[in-house]
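hey so i finaly got around to running the thing on Histidine phosphatase superfamily from Orbilia oligospora. pasting the sequence first so u can double check i didnt mess up the copy paste, my clipboard has been acting weird all day
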Amino acid sequence: MTLLFPEKKDEISPLVFSGRPPTRFLAPGRRKNLRLENVKGFFLQDLSETKEDNFNVFQTKDFGLIQQEYSIDITNRLPPNATQWDHFRAEILRLDREKLTKRLGVLGYKVLYLFRPSESWHHRGESYYGKESWDCLWTRQDGNGTAQWIDAELTPTGIEGAKYLHKAWDKHLGNTNLAVPELFLSSPLSRAADTLIHSFNLTFRNPRPPSPVFVEFLRESFGVDTHNSRRSYTTLKKKYPLFEFEEEFSEFDPLWTSYRDETDSSVLHRAKIFLENLFLRRSEMFIAVATHESVIKAILEAIGHRQFSIPVGHMIPVVIKGSWFHTGEPRTEVERYKMFYKKNRNCTELDPVTDPDAEPEVDMDEFD
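ok and heres what it spat out for the 3d tokens, dont ask me to read them lol
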């Protein structure tokens, strides 16, 4: 089975966070563009000598934060027992303050903790059936009668993995509340939301942290896989009462299709738009982002970070600098996201799709 969705549009507006509109900065006629770049020298994952094979961020001291001495000015402002995280946070704040005094065209700095969801039922399905049978047949079904992977939820192992992440976070950062997220963003797919909830104990923390926000462009690459289709706004609101929604979040899934896969360049395009909106609309500097493998890869590419493999249920921290640069020609329009699709998968007798327009009518709410 696949899902029935309203008619798809080839082009949709960029995501919208509450706050000042980006058109104030990226409007037609302006000669400025926004450059987003990785700031090296803070985490081991930046270094070419750090091997990604068998790198476990949760078993690495301070998530890979490089042990180093910071400026005398920072050291003198902190107590003698200050941790590396105290120094790191103070350095990021110093860099951000500098933009006001040196007029370097710097918009600001942000630290993103990019989380990949824990094990979900579609991982089990692919392991059970094998890659070819999974990619060409079973990934297009809502389940197999025993397990269900439409908008795949976490397995019991995945839930325990996310809870372990919470313990690891507490172990590394303690109770200082320094460098902890000020903003929580999530893909609207269940496995991402549940990973975020368990990882930060959002349901039971006291005081209650800021409400996490669902962001459409943080979803896994769109395609024929039912585990990458999302539930309706109404269902998500009922299922995740802690969460808020970005503005213009549609009732039904406007992006998923049962017969085409999104291209890597399309994922990169929306990752860039997400980052631009994040810098232009939000003032928070330390941000937890629950997203997916393809989006994490795209974000790393967009900021010039080396590609670094992120296993299921793991995280990578990045420091991003946003700055303005002048272009030769004035902008003619505000950039909009346009979806690009790959050709059909190389499937033969296993491929159940014969008519791209034939989509069985199944309502997502039926599975709640």
